[in-house]
Amino acid sequence: MATDAGNAILTQVVGGTLDAIAQEMSAVVTRTSRSPLFNEAHDFTTGIFDLPGSSSRLVAQAPGCTLHLYAVVSAVDRLMEAFRYDLHPGDVLLVNDPYYGGSHSLDWTIVTPVFHGRKPLLLPAVRSHMGDNGGPVAGGYNPRSRDIWQDGLRIPPIKLYERGEKRRDVFEMILGNNRLAHWLEGDLAAMIGACQVAAARIQDLLDSYGADSVASAIEQRINYTERRVRAEISEWPDGVYTAETLADHDFQGGQDICVKATVTVRGDELDIDFTGSSPQVAGFVNSPLSNTASFAFVAISTCCDEDIPINEGYMNPVKITAPPGTVVNPLPPAPCGHATACVGAEIAEAVLLALSNCAPERVGVNAHKLPLAYSHGKYEDGRPWVNLNFYGYTGGAGAAYGTDGWGLYPPVMTGVILPSIEMTELQYPSRVLKHEYRADYTGAGRWRGAPGLEVQIQHLEESRTSVMMAGVRNTIKGLCGAEDGPANRVIVDAGSEQALLVPETAFDVPMPPGGILHFDRAGGGGWGNPLDRPAEEVLDDVRNEYVTVPGALRDYGVVICVGEGSIVRRLQLDAEATERERLRRRGEAGRKA
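Given the sequence above, the corresponding structure tokens read:
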């Protein structure tokens, strides 16, 4: 018993230490990087992997951009395959190619092996969204892309450092192919520095407890996570559950791109089969297998208790099938530049919709149908800038059983932070004129989605903007009888005679000094029948200006009277009228059924 207790304690100590190291890596990147994508928006993920055999395993991670998390696993494996017989202390590895375990070429992965003896034992890794990737367009999102090369610079597995020596030729090649080299050089240094700090901390851990004890503790922790996840799955009824959802378009003329998920629950295991999804498309929304797996696992992790450690144990009970040549597992050279938003959002949504048939109280709306709009120009000294207009993407978080949607980012971007307005206005020639909730702009339900937002960003100098719309016709889905979210809307140069309402895409549109980029960003989908939402909660939403008086009646069947006095006294619930209205609607719904 004492031995078992000692092993359990050591497992907690080693697991907690590795989590702390991953969090320190995250802090290093945040505090030492140059790009506001890193030091303000936190659009990166840090983790630690082990290498017990031919494949790596995720053993620890820090909160970051959740959609990166499981895609990093494939990237680390591809790096290990490439350098398995040429790996040395002091090596620093890099890959971004979507067909080598990537997601889209804007996401770069850095790995540094930590050796014990002559064996690589643990692998600190950082995956980050870069401000530019050397493609045909500034910022890396090219809606005209027809193949992977038009997405941006492809970097297969390479070494940035070899035996501790910097490969200057490789660095110069990468920097020479990037518009934001002044950011990129510092960001790469921050990523490498985070891995080197982690390597030192890991070496201290190995010296303190020994390599065998650390390896055993890691194994026990992964087994613990796997047992917890299997226990969760075993509570769901066995069966085959199918759902599909649609992306509006592929930016090249293709419409209603289908993602179909068939989830089979068999005891304590899940099979997720994407057979029936659309064939790969011409546009840059194709999702490489690693990206597809990542979004599927993110959907599953939102259905499990949040105190379960995130590691390889989450993946072991789940099998994923994605037919080659489809939009969820394309064959090269299909373009993939937008896959982390579209069709990534639909992958997570389809899995959650399928699981809502067997585990309705565990699913939430993992909404990510964001309208992407980036602007670019030049500073006075001639250096280029690229602004991803982060404020326009906020919103879309859906409801779950027991809770309204919350926060400004949906779960797939859990660790991403909204940059401060002050720093944004210092770093770019722009002003954030408006960033506020918009009433009646979310999915109604027993629990409603987070409110939508109205955003206006003014660019003070001449610039150009490209817009890629999503969630206009096929909006965020509600779950378990709830309403879907509303449509996204973006207007370029709003308020002027040249104002352009973007239906699907706009490419490199000129913006005069003072031009305004306007977003109506949809709120998330709801959960459950809106008529089941307590009328008092609807009244509170009206008082908080999330819902209007007409919206309360239209969406929830709640009658609110407007009288005299303060806002609290002016707005009063008519309980009897509300009960009559809801009974009438339920009766109509019953007759239609």
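The CA atoms of residues 243 and 354 lie 5 Å apart. Try to locate this feature in the token string yourself.
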